[in-house]
Write a structure and sequence with these properties.
The protein has 587 residues and is an alpha/beta fold. It has helices spanning 3-44, 47-72, 81-98, 102-124, 130-148, 167-190, 192-209, 214-240, 245-248, 251-264, 271-289, 294-308, 312-319, 391-399, 421-427, 444-452, 458-472, 487-500, 517-528, 569-572, 576-583, and strands at 159-160, 242-243, 353-362, 365-375, 380-384, 406-411, 414-415, 429-431, 505-509, 537-541, 554-559, 562-567.
């Protein structure tokens, strides 16, 4: 790096530091102001002020719970009220039937809500988008019917609860719960686990290919998101001294919670707090001064804000450099980085990859028909064929996205045919995608550090990520949002994420398509150096044959799912069967 480049980098780092410093000052100031306000309300507030403040804190807690699963992880939920109701009933039954102290009962209710989510998560989270939303909505309705007919829990008549504690005690409990919600969201916004969750929101398929254990991350996020409303439900039941199924599983609670987060800023740390607080205050003012127009005016405020500022209130602050989410695990200045550590030689001489008689059928259509392939250490193999030949299907099957109908896949002698995709990635089987699947709302750095951090301690992951960015030519734009990269750089990012896994075998699916000559040469040079980086074998799929002819030791030709040729590039490209497959029968 030249002296001028170093000066430039330092200036940019200083500017970023000032921006981060402004955000930290704003955050600390907001935190101190909130703490002071909460203390003043508890010490000097009237009964009305105390109750209204408790309601605001409950709304903040519900908003933070919803934000964990829907804002960060991207699973739109219309049924968080299910856990609210479970917590409310669990607290009430534990107090009334078991004589448990209120605070302890609320803690147990929160844990019960999390446990219910852990049980339901692997089932419910198989759904996505509107199906998950409807599934959660259906769960709430089922629970309402169950509690309407459960005599032990009061059935449709509900339960009357003793006002065991003062309003100040309830208020203090709700404040602690809102603080817990804030801290959990802060963990998601700043940690590697939170980056895993955000990657699922961006592109779950790509995240799994990069080694993210999607099911585990989703279920943990779901459980944490359930803990908050379950505990809040217990506190609200305690506060109101009455509980029935219609109030415990009220669908408007979910709708209000979603509006709060949309208004404040989805997937942000401060959005749920700002959204819930501001809208609760606005609604109260409308109710007092314009009771006949309250709902209409409230709706207009929400719609106008969301349309004018899609990022919510936090989005407005972001425009002026405040409250921006820091780039996860990013250093102030991009270091030179370190290449991956060399793996010790394996004792056996098993092939890097063996594919035996692989067959894939899609509803009667044969996509792969008895394909076999073996790669030795140090080999680069190019798979070519016309569109629809089965090249990408072969990659998808080897990577674990498509289960084979028949056949076997072995990696260094280990049978991985039924192994989950993320485990194959973590073992060292890395792939790129034919159509780039960058995570557009994440930075280039976060796209690359995401696979780099799995299996490595933090500092090692940072150094490895920096090295990958330099090798792939993405260092100048490492802090940019990935969605803003031009097509050629998107391809470079695909390649960089493969390198970030420090793989033993790299599957590169048209990684050079759409690149300029200069960009292609950068990638070709990096592919030539892959053995230096610890990559034992490389498999390329390319339509631009000239880009891989001098890189490959062997070429495998697929035609309608069958292997029709396998030899050196010079012999394969002169094979009449290959010429016919590409150009058709001569007249």
């Amino acid at each position: 790096m030249t002296a001028e480049e170093k000066t430039d980098a330092l200036a940019r780092a200083a500017a970023r530091f000032r921006g981060a410093h402004k955000s930290r000052i704003a955050a600390v100031a907001a935190g101190l102001a909130a703490a002071l306000l909460l203390a003043l309300i508890a010490l000097t507030g009237s009964g009305y002020t105390l109750q209204f403040s408790t309601d605001i804190l409950a709304a903040v807690t519900l908003a933070y719970g919803w934000n964990l699963i829907s804002g960060f992880t991207g699973y739109l939920s219309f049924g968080q009220v299910s856990f609210y109701g479970i917590g409310a009933y669990a607290t009430s039954i534990l107090v009334l039937r078991a004589g448990m102290p209120w605070y302890f009962a609320v803690c147990c209710a929160g844990l019960l809500g999390a446990l219910a989510a852990l049980v339901l998560g692997p089932i419910m989270l198989r759904l996505r988008g509107i199906l998950f939303a409807l599934g959660m909505l259906g769960l709430a309705r089922i629970l309402e019917v169950v509690f309407n007919n459960w005599n032990y829990a009061g059935a449709s008549l509900g339960l009357s609860l003793p006002p065991a504690l003062t309003p100040v005690s309830v208020y203090a409990g709700m404040a602690l719960l809102a603080l817990l919600g804030f801290l959990l969201n802060a963990f998601f916004a700043h940690s590697g686990f939170g980056l895993d969750a955000m990657s699922l929101n961006e592109d779950e398929t790509a995240a799994v290919a990069l080694g993210v254990p999607a099911t585990r991350v989703k279920v943990i996020a779901f459980a944490l998101s359930a803990l908050l409303p379950a505990a809040a439900g217990g506190l609200v039941a305690w506060n109101r001294s009455y509980l029935d199924p219609s109030s415990a599983f009220d669908p408007t609670l979910d709708l209000e919670t979603i509006v709060f987060v949309l208004f404040g800023g989805v997937g942000t740390l401060w959005g749920p707090l700002f959204g819930a607080t501001v809208l609760m205050l606005v609604a109260e003012e409308f109710l007092v001064y314009l009771p006949h127009f309250e709902l209409a005016l409230y709706g207009l405020v929400v719609i106008a804000t969301v349309l004018a500022f899609p990022g919510g209130i936090v989005g407005i602050f972001n425009r002026f450099g405040y409250l921006r989410r820091p780039i996860i695990l990013a250093p102030a200045i991009l270091p030179a980085g370190e290449p991956p550590q060399k793996r010790p030689p394996r004792a056996d001489e098993a092939p890097v990859l063996e594919v035996k008689d692989l067959e894939v059928r899609f509803e009667g259509l044969t996509a792969l028909d008895g394909v076999s392939l073996a790669l030795k250490r140090g080999e680069t193999v190019a798979i070519i064929g016309a569109n629809g030949a089965g090249k990408t299907t072969l990659f998808n099957t080897i990577a674990g996205f498509v289960p084979p109908s028949r056949g076997e896949i072995r990696f260094f002698g280990r049978d991985v045919t039924r192994l989950p995709t993320f485990r194959r990635a973590q073992l060292g089987m890395a792939r790129s995608f034919q159509i780039p699947r960058s995570m557009p709302m994440l930075s280039v750095w976060e796209n690359v550090v995401l696979p780099a951090r799995h299996g490595k301690e933090r500092q090692r992951a940072v150094e490895h990520t920096a090295w990958v960015l330099h090798v792939s030519g993405l260092a100048p734009m490492w802090r940019d949002r990935a969605g803003r990269l031009p097509p050629g750089h998107q391809r470079q990012l695909e390649f960089a994420r493969v390198l970030a896994l420090a793989p033993e075998i790299a599957f590169l699916d048209e990684v050079m398509a759409g690149m300029t000559v200069e960009e292609r040469e950068v990638v070709r040079a990096a592919i030539r150096r892959l053995p230096e980086f610890g990559v034992a074998a490389v498999v390329l799929v390319e339509h631009v044959i000239s880009a891989v002819a001098d890189l490959a030791d062997r070429m495998v030709v697929l035609d309608f799912g069958r292997k029709i040729a396998e030899d050196t590039p010079q012999r394969v490209l002169r094979d009449p069967a290959v010429v016919r497959a590409y150009l058709g029968e001569p007249r």
